[in-house]
Design a protein that fits this description.
With 452 residues, this protein is of the alpha+beta class. Helix content is 29%, strand content 27%. It folds into 2 domains: 3-110 and 146-227 and 402-448, FAD/NAD(P)-binding domain (3-Layer(bba) Sandwich), CATH 3.50.50.60; 117-140 and 229-398, no CATH class. Strands 1, 2, 7, 8, 9, 10 and 21 form a 7-stranded mixed beta sheet that branches. Helix 2 runs parallel beside helix 12 and helix 3 (90-106) crosses helix 12. It is globular. It starts with a helix and ends with a helix. Bound molecules: flavin-adenine dinucleotide.
């Protein structure tokens, strides 16, 4: 890069595409080590402007990404939501998970407490699970910011970055990344206008919503990638007291029911809060988040993991489906009034859901049978789980991504071209994504300091 070019306003030492947790933590680490100038581009809006009621995309796009703006539940465990175990020891990933948690803690004015499950409680839950054919696979410390505290943390975080001269351009979408001798040229679309910026290091932190775009960029740059095997399933909403026997022992346990070579697992257990509908590309999906308001029900995802699962490109549904438990088991549709007047008092917006479709028909039979088996069995641990009035929402999809080939520094075969967070197909979660952003930042820092 010649000096004239560098002095121009369009040159940055590091450009980060995406302002989710992985992009923010990457920028934080670079700032702490005085690497810059840094530009973060984000296709969504800034965090203050995000409002759950604006659009379905608002859940997944915008500064903070989806999780920090929703449930903001930190799973502080090196093995949770990550495939980075293929590069690093559990011990090392644990250290980084705690470090990432510490970054967010710095910006949490509410000083949200970390919940550490006691060995006694883990043992108790493990024994209960074993008695009924389940396995307690993971129990770890959780810091649950909830909504809207996560939003406040993101606001404080971005203010810190801005004070440290990081440029954050919102409503700015990266359209193309091109290799040039000095580094990378990125074509941006900002409020309808095309802008070109250049950098030495390019960090792609585009999350799940940008994974499809990133795959196309990798194709054009001849960076290898492969398909991940997704986990697919449903979310169950039931009265709060039903899931309390488990929740009081371990806040967000991963409980698995083995079924041959496959299994069904619990994911994202919430007490209170609401079911939400969001959209990634063409796919509508559901999830849930808890907040610190009173009321609400309990809800949890049940995900089927099987090598036979295929990436879902389009489920051909225009909205997620809702069905009463009784009808799900009897393989029948639920009438609209039966849902609206349901005893449970469901917490989501029915206008966003479809009750004219049957969940049994959108998924493969094996998946449906496996989930039903889980429900019947889990009712023995949490009586009322299979209650007729409980509601079932579908689909829930995780790991529905391409995995981009990177080395253990999160760098692709192209020098100084990094891929981090959920968009890399290697992580799934706020802390896991953040860890990968920190790893890339540290590699950039060591290059800048001439250490590698
Ligand atoms: C509804 C919901 C609730 C969740 N709750 C939790 C939770 O409680 N705890 C947890 O650990 N995880 C949760 N997750 C998962 C969590 O949000 C993600 O794992 C995490 O945000 C990944 O971080 P990331 O930085 O990799 O990507 P993201 O957070 O997805 O951020 C990527 C950002 O890049 C932007 N972007 C994409 N493409 C482009 C482009 N071309 N140009 C510019 N910008 C672009 C996107 O708009 C987005 O803001 C939740 C997910 C969802 C959908």
């Amino acid at each position: 890069m010649n000096e004239k070019d560098k002095s121009r306003k369009n040159f940055f030492q590091v450009i980060i595409i995406g302002a989710g947790p992985s992009g923010l933590c990457c920028a934080y680490e670079l700032v702490k080590n005085k690497v810059g100038p840094i530009l973060i581009v984000e296709k969504g809006c800034n965090i203050a402007a995000r409002d759950h009621k604006v659009s379905l995309k608002d859940y997944t796009e915008g500064v903070g990404g989806p999780g920090l703006y929703g449930d903001a539940k930190f799973c502080i465990y090196g093995r949770a939501g990550t495939k980075l175990t293929k590069f690093f020891s559990e011990n090392f990933l644990n250290q980084l998970a705690n470090y990432a948690d510490g970054i967010f803690k710095r910006f949490d004015k509410n000083r949200t407490k970390k919940d550490m499950p006691s060995i006694f409680k883990i043992k108790k839950l493990r024994n209960i699970c074993k008695k009924h054919g389940f396995k307690l696979k993971m129990a770890y410390p959780v810091r649950h910011l909830g909504f809207p505290n996560g939003k406040n943390v993101v606001e404080n975080f971005t203010n810190f970055l801005k004070r440290n001269k990081v440029d954050i351009w919102t409503y700015t979408q990266a359209k193309k990344a091109i290799k040039i001798p000095e580094g990378y040229k990125v074509l941006l679309k900002q409020r309808g206008r095309i802008k070109i910026v250049k950098c030495k290091y390019l960090v792609n932190a585009v999350g799940r919503s940008g994974n499809e775009w990133l795959k196309q960029v990798c194709e054009s740059l001849k960076i290898p990638f492969e398909l991940n095997t997704p986990d697919i399933g449903i979310r169950i909403e039931c009265p709060k007291n039903v899931l309390l026997p488990v929740y009081t022992l371990v806040k967000n346990p991963r409980i698995e029911l083995p079924i041959g070579k496959s299994y069904v697992k619990t994911h994202c257990l919430c007490i209170g809060g609401e079911i939400i509908v969001y959209k990634f590309g063409k796919i509508f999906a559901v999830d849930g988040h808890a907040n610190h308001r009173e009321g609400g029900n309990a809800h949890v995802n049940l995900l089927y993991h099987s090598q036979e699962n295929k990436k879902i490109f389009d489920l051909k549904i225009k909205r997620p489906i809702v069905q009463r438990m009784e009808n799900f088991f009897k393989n029948r549709l639920t009438r609209k009034e039966k849902i609206i007047k349901n005893k449970l008092g469901a917490t989501t917006l029915f206008s966003l859901l479809d009750y004219r479709k049957n969940i049994n028909n959108i998924f493969p039979k094996k998946l449906v049978l496996a989930i039903k088996k889980f429900i019947i069995q889990f009712d023995k641990i949490c009586p009322g789980f299979q209650d007729s009035d409980n509601l079932i929402y579908a689909p829930v999809i995780e790991w529905n991504t391409y995995q981009i080939k990177v080395n253990k520094e999160m760098e692709t075969k192209l020098k100084n071209f990094y891929v981090v967070g959920d968009g890399s197909g290697l992580t799934q979660g706020i802390i896991a994504g953040s860890v990968s952003g920190i790893i890339a930042a540290r590699n950039i820092i060591s290059k800048e300091k001439g250490l590698s």
